[in-house]
């Protein structure tokens, strides 16, 4: 059977085209191109308007603004996964001498370090990076505008520092690291720091008349990790597939799931939005979207993903303001998800299983609450409550025979397997929570003990 994804239904494709065309007209955008990715492959791509007299296709470059930050976050988390740094490390541990040296790397990724939103001096997005030749020039004398950890405060200089951190740890320019560690493995040949033809020009549209003003496309220098990249709908569709499924040559799927978890609080007036590690989060009805919006003078862009639906969308346009790329991308994703709900892949038996894991499979009880432990195809375990509302988690094996929780209440907690003198499993201990084969089994060391009279009748 072919693994090629099924085409979208004609009615769905027309609905997507209608949203794209309406968005381009209402947003008065010179051009816009969009794509939908489902189950790891692009299933729809279309463009409206013109670039150099032609309707844009998936190979036309646009500036993607702050989507660049997600690329930088992937580079930083690669360093973390390699053991070269920790998210709790202070910036000074690896990049000494900046005015933000006490900020942790995790706080910079989540925009909770309390740093200023913008670099001092003239608007950095429209002025050359030569005006800010040193890291001190992108921070100023006192970049701290909020106490660290108090709130989410978006900081472009914070991601400039993360780019400099990548350079310092890797020992070469962050753009080279980006190309070698992300773009080349994923075959994203049309993503670059500088534009390469065919590419769109950036435009501002007059608010009250249908006339255009060209926007400058400057090299932002040290601020480049905050928003310099150019890319195409084809390349970003590839990136969306990576963000959904991972690629062990670049970043494991579990680390990408970590990036999607909320890492900073939303504003009190905006509970439908949040921020993970280099990823924006958006709640649309009951659907959690993760990705990033982006803007630079003359350009707006968005990528959104829904891991639950295995769906992603891309929107690129060459207009400064007017077209709500983030809303349009979310609308496109929701259109496909609602009209064509995901069909799960067929069930298949495990290709192989360790007999010790098979021995662990089945029901377990915390107190009287039933859980089931299942081996997964990737060698991990899943602990799930049999009745709704319990605390479940996915568990990753460690070399010492323990397992580490990856999500939910047990994220980061260790599960250890306890056996008796014969080698039979007696109980599991997950972060001091004891799981037994029977409710309050008397043999394992239940905290507080079990009444020796056992279960009683009324």
From TrEMBL:
InterPro entries: AmpC-like, Beta-lactam-related, Beta-lactam/transpept-like, DUF7586. Pfam families: Beta-lactamase, DUF7586. Residues 354-437 form the DUF7586 domain. It comes from the Bacteria. Gene3D superfamilies: DD-peptidase/beta-lactamase superfamily (3.40.710.10). PANTHER family: D-ALANYL-D-ALANINE CARBOXYPEPTIDASE (PTHR46825:SF7), D-ALANYL-D-ALANINE-CARBOXYPEPTIDASE/ENDOPEPTIDASE AMPH (PTHR46825). This is CubicO group peptidase (Beta-lactamase class C family). Residues 23-332 form the Beta-lactamase-related domain. SUPFAM superfamilies: beta-lactamase/transpeptidase-like (SSF56601).
């Amino acid at each position: 059977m072919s693994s090629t994804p099924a085409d979208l239904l004609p009615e769905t494709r027309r609905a997507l085209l209608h949203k794209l065309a309406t968005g381009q007209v209402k947003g008065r955008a010179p051009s816009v191109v969009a794509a939908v990715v489902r189950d790891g492959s692009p299933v729809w791509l279309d463009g409206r308007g013109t670039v150099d007299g032609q309707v844009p296709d998936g190979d036309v470059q646009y500036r993607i603004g702050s989507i660049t930050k997600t690329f930088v976050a992937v580079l930083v988390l690669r360093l973390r996964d390699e053991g070269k740094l920790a998210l709790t490390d202070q910036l000074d541990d690896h990049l000494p001498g900046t005015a933000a040296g006490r900020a942790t790397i995790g706080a910079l990724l989540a925009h909770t370090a309390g740093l200023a939103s913008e670099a001092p001096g003239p608007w950095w997005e429209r002025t050359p990076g030569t005006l800010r030749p040193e890291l001190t020039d992108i921070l100023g004398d006192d970049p701290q505008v909020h106490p660290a950890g108090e709130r989410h405060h978006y900081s472009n200089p914070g991601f400039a520092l993360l780019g400099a951190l990548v350079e310092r740890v890797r020992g070469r320019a962050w753009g080279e690291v980006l190309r070698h560690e992300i773009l080349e493995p994923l075959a994203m040949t049309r993503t670059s720091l500088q534009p390469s033809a065919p590419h769109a020009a950036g435009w501002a549209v007059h608010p009250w008349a249908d006339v255009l003003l060209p926007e400058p496309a400057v090299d932002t220098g040290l601020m480049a990790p905050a928003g310099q990249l150019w890319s195409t709908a084809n390349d970003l569709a590839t990136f969306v597939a990576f963000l959904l499924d991972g690629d062990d040559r670049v970043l494991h799927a579990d680390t990408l799931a970590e990036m999607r978890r909320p890492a900073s609080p939303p504003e009190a007036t905006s509970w439908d939005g949040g921020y993970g590690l280099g990823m924006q989060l958006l709640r649309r009805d009951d659907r959690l979207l993760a990705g990033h919006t982006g803007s630079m003078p003359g350009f707006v862009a968005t990528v959104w993903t829904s891991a639950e639906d295995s769906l992603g969308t891309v929107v690129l346009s060459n207009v400064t303001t007017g077209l709500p790329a983030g809303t349009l991308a979310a609308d496109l994703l929701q259109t496909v998800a609602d009209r064509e709900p995901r069909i799960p892949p067929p069930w298949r038996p495990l290709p192989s299983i360790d007999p010790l894991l098979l021995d662990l499979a089945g029901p377990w009880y915390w107190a009287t609450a039933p859980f089931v432990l299942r081996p997964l195809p990737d060698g991990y375990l899943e602990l799930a409550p049999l009745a709704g509302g319990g605390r479940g988690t996915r568990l990753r094996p460690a070399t010492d025979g323990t397992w580490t929780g990856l999500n939910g209440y047990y994220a980061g907690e260790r599960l250890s397997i306890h056996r008796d003198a014969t080698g039979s499993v007696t109980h599991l201990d997950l972060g001091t929570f004891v799981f037994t084969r029977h409710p309050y089994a008397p043999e394992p060391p239940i905290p507080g003990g079990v009444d020796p009279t056992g279960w009683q009748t009324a």
